[in-house]
Amino acid sequence: MSIDLTQIKKQTKQGLTELLNQAHLQQGDVLAVGLSTSEVRAEQIGEAPSMEIGRAVIKTIIETLRPLGIHLAVQGCQHLNRALVVERAVAKERGLEIVMVYPQIHAGGAGQIAAFENMDDPVEVEHIQAEAGMDIGDTSIGMQVKFVQVPVRTSIKEIGNAHTTYLRSRPKYIGGPRAKYEWDPFNKKSFANN
Hints:
Elements: H1 5-23, E1 30-35, H2 37-40, H3 51-65, E2 71-75, E3 84-87, H4 88-93, E4 98-99, H5 110-118, E5 122-125, E6 132-136, E7 149-152, E8 158-159, E9 162-169, H6 188-192
Parallel strand pairs: 1-2, 1-6
Antiparallel strand pairs: 2-3, 3-5, 4-5, 6-9, 7-9, 8-9
Helix pairs in contact: 1-3, 3-5
């Protein structure tokens, strides 16, 4: 099946932009990405990886995130226990344990290899708690996104032929019936009655 890389890049950029608009990420936050290039090609996950697609998708994501100061973590497949490629500086800043492994096409996948090619000083880490996630091809990235995960709806339901899912995170709500979840500056009148 022929894949239009221009269309893949366009869909990736559009889906990511819509996610960023809703996730309200800040400089220094991390976006976790799972990518099955096989699924993008309408094949079964892990069965027909494509470096062309991996490079197109990951480069598009990096080019969008870098100017914003948002970091990328690219999840590998189950053959690497879903380890993630991040910049060494991110691993150190977040206190993540670096593990010794390098991705290859059938262990880690094309997305991870593309991340190694496009990052300044890439390393693998076992886990991360990213502030948002983008799953291209049902790669199960929910475990990499901070609790509480919130689904994000975008106009991009597929990249190529791969189903997409987007997540953002929010802090947990705590407290009981007297708790408030929006800032409301204290009003002197309310204290006058107490």
